[in-house]
Amino acid sequence: MSTFTRGSTRTSTGSTSDGKNGTMNGTTTEANRRPRLSGMTWLVWRQHRAAFWTILVATALSVAWIVYQRGQLVDFLDGYGYPGKSLDEAGAKFQQYNNAFSFVSMGLQAIPILLGVFLGAPLVAGDLENGTAKLVAAQSMSRTRWLATKLALAGLVVVVSTGVMSAVFGWWWNPVRSEVTIMDWTSGAAFNTTGPVPVALTLFSVFGGVAIGAVLRRTLPAMVVTFGFTVVLQLVWDYFLLSLGNVVTVTTNKGVMDENAFPSLPRGAYEIDQSYVTGSGDLAGWSTCSESQTDAARQVCLDKADVVGWAVQYLPMSQMNAMQWFGASILFALTAGVVAFLFFWGRKRLV
């Protein structure tokens, strides 16, 4: 730094050699200070760098904590003798690990809502509200390129952060994923936090927030409406989650009163419904003959109804990955529709 100052001073007094040194040092310093990004990409990153860096740093810290928790879990399982010994017998010894899963899964399920509200909604609405969009429109850069750069950078940060968190959380859960008492795989705690689902849910929430901001053109109202949108999205998604799979039905014909009459289901299977099977193959509700006071009276009732066995409908855990990708593809398609809306209609309002 001192060499650059002396060189600059001597250049002004006519010293050629020192002036060259000063110029070279000055050029080198300027090149070192020049941001690696340039043009519109650098502008958008600089404008939203606080939000982007907050997301990336929070992701790095969360990953480090999950890696630590996974090491603790594996050490406990090895010392306990799992899977040779059932975790049901561990009792309070395993409770801290169960609590950790619940805590992190709740946080991961909140990510689409948080990023939709605090990243998606203000992304364009803030520029429309404070007049930055008009300034950009007056420059040589087109509104399409400006919007594309904003969506690309925001989408990249979302995909990287949620993708990494999903992979690490799934890696942490994998040693005990067949234990329904820890996290049922059909629940949002597991299904919405692993695989491609968190990436798809968050992208749709964020870009949906961008579209809401482009329509409302005010940051605070856009954030409020986006919050409602993301909450409703989560509720609707959870409601239709089980319909993403192919229901498997298993039947028996050995009666219903014997000890081994009920069909055995695969480990981790999610039972949807159960009913009786009659000799003709028809189904009868499981409450049939439930009013019988004794087992003998119930057997007489079942014989009269010609009940010969059980019918159980369930979703095997082996379908989880396919269900996640099917659901994520739907969300990705909806996200593509939102992006198309922003480019073909929304960009006309970005002034």
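Above is the first protein from milestone M3; the second protein from the same milestone is given next.
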Amino acid sequence: MSLLARLAPHLPYVRRYARALTGDQTTGDHYVRVALEALAAGDRVLEASLTPRVALYHVFHAIWLTSGAQLEAPGEEGGDDASQRLMRIAPRSRQAFLLTALEGFTPSEAAQILGVEFGEVERLIAEAQAEIDAELATDVLIIEDEPVIAADIEALVTEIGHTVVDIAATRTEAVDAVARKTPGLVLADIQLADGSSGIDAVKDILARHDVPVIFITAFPERLLTGERPEPTFLITKPFQPETVKAAIGQALFFHPRNTRKAA
């Protein structure tokens, strides 16, 4: 199989990453092109010990770093909120965050790409997460019928700087809560106290308001059916607090509206 054929499935994604990293499509594409030219000329090779996708991103980073690593490209006026926020995150933390949150690499794979130790990647991700949490503090609605679990979620949401405006145990309570105050984020269980559905509650909310939603449930199979658009953020119970915190940061960061305190 030719080099191009091996890399073709991954090129749209490395271009996406390069654009997010540099803040500019032209600049990002330039670095991707230089990386591909280096591979074609034999100046760089894909490491055999890595998967083709990880190896491609590794080469991209090597080229980008030796070319001056010009992260701060001229900003595009009117760029989306996520792009502008990305440019405010410290460069190295930005890389680790994008590789894991946007590109879906594991921290171990991100460490291979960046050429650093696993612990360093975890530290960088934590730094990025802290910056995101501080900037995107918002009002949160929790839809959860188990009081102990709701209290746990409320505590971790508050810990990272957000405000819980209501906790709803049923579909009706959730809709009423949103009528009183529009949240900037919804954390929802699926099976609720009166037999109603968190899925239906979220549908009711999204019909009126554009807010990011994270499902936290013991029944993920009810959402992963392939019969309808599946949620971007789905966490299985029992959950790890750090998993929920990371999902909150990612959901707020990449949602296409300003998620500071909702009106």
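Note on the second protein: Residues 71-78, 258-263 have pLDDT under 50 and may be disordered.
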